[in-house]
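Quick board copy: two proteins, each given as sequence then tokens.
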Amino acid sequence: MDSPAIVISASPHVHSDRTSKRIMYDVVIALIPAFLVSLYVFGFNALIAISVTIFSCLLFEYLIQKYLMKTEVTITDGSALLTGILLAFNIPAGLPIWMIIVGSLVAIGIAKLSFGGLGFNVFNPALVGRVFLLVCFPVQMTLWPTAVENNTSIADAVSGATTLGIIKDGLQFGETMTEISAKIPSSVNMLLGITGGSIGEMSAIALLLGGLYLIFRKIISWHIPVMVLLTIGVMTGIFWFVDPEHYANPVIHLLSGGAILGAFYMATDLVTSPVTKKGMVIFAIGIGVITVVIRLFGAYPEGISFAILIMNAFVPLINRYFKPRRFGAKIKAKMI
């Protein structure tokens, strides 16, 4: 009589009472403070954008899984919900609804389900959707609503510039950082989120509160967010120390743009980040270095989205090089 077949799932084989669904909803909970700040700063436009991305991501995942892939529908596991929130956090409030829907389709249909669904995607789905929209619709994706002034209107927002955008434009026109400093928000406003930018990237304190919650809940490790921010801070600090009139100080770089949002919520994606501590450190340093290079010398004032996606591509190589020793492997004896 033939013995029954043994089915072994893909590694890693780690026992835990924490399900992927529970992890996803913990991240959603961590994003609540930033969500509330976005409603205060951008009002109805933020609420509409977030609602559309969530609904679109859930709908596309349902339709593709049920009618194209003909597999089990997993819209209740929280992954599509989280992708929708993160995509919304990476776009400006007031972006046309049809563009939001297109970005959601790219995030779910191309970046996630075309690779096989949750656990198989190589790149962070929300960032793929965001970068696709930025490349295809650069004008609309860089029309930033003015903070607070327009938070009760559902009409087209008054457009402004982000802190990093003001700095890059000013430097290109020959202004010094002393002159530019009078045009950008204060560190307190950047900490609280009273500044222009993507829906969920403005309030550093709200994002940090959520990030600390994730670390406390052991959803993420501190290695990636701390090393990403430390790398950005050290590199920009060196440039600022050498020439403070042509480079912004590291506090501005850390509090503005998507540095904190990317470091805590997207670089730490369990599927697209390394599994070992050493791998996480290398991965995070790479993100920080690429982000700074793009910010200081690239065409875009912000670069963390591109940096995370680039390092996502290196994750299989990093995991291979820093893979833990197999159980039972021999250790070479050292000469005494």
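And the next:
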Amino acid sequence: MTINEQTLWLHGEGFDMLGLVSLPPASTPAQRTGVVIVVGGAQYRAGSHRQFVQLARLLAEGGFPVLRFDLPGMGDSPGELLSFEDTAPHIATAIDGFQRQHPGVERVVLWGLCDGASASLLYVDATHDPRIAGLALLNPWVRSEVSLARARVKHYYWQRLREPEFWRKLLRGGVRLESLRSWACAFHEARSKGAEGLAFPTRMAQGWQLLDAPILLLLSQRDLTAQEFDDCLKTDSAWSSVARSKKPTRIDITGADHTCSHPGAHQTLLDCCLKWLRKTHQEGDRQSPS
């Protein structure tokens, strides 16, 4: 099947962004639900190992119009780089432009990786936008010094302490003093109750709670960012209550790294996203062919 791809400029207040829309083949009736890929980190609309290109085209083949765009200062969009915490106006502009060019798109699912996932939740919290029909979140970013230390202690240091080889190395004097100091610092930081860095994760949790729509949560097995988010769900007061009251469709991707770069993990990611969209947004959602 041949999909149709179109570029468009997204004009906001004081900024311009280049977007690219992937549309379903002419033989496939388009859904009224579209997907907006919110790019995070130092990436542009193609994504790591062309991840967003492949995702957009697969979803378009499945009937879902998809927009991916460059935030200011990235890819082909002019301007200065900005923090993911400040992207709400840009996401709103992207949705506006998407719907103007393709008025059949009545509502959108935001899809984000890492701080793109975080930005999606922050957008919901900041705008309460009724057009948001769901969120697909891959390895959301909630990192603070405390959360990073806790993840390291839980997923690395405790594992090392259970290994006989570590103790043999320690008794032989093979563990450097600097390493022991870093361990001590990590354990101390992990016990801290400091609030540094917790403001934006708390707002993310509020966005999760506010959204009256399906959420797909994808966590990579071999990713520290995913482990930090999982720990946050279990230990942070704001997140633990949300996780109990509004459970997402959760999929843990075995053996996957942060961007699901291995072909098998990447294919699992693509298949899960399309299957979830079809289950939650396709039934009864087809437009009548013109």
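Board note added afterward: The CA atoms of residues 109 and 207 lie 14 Å apart.
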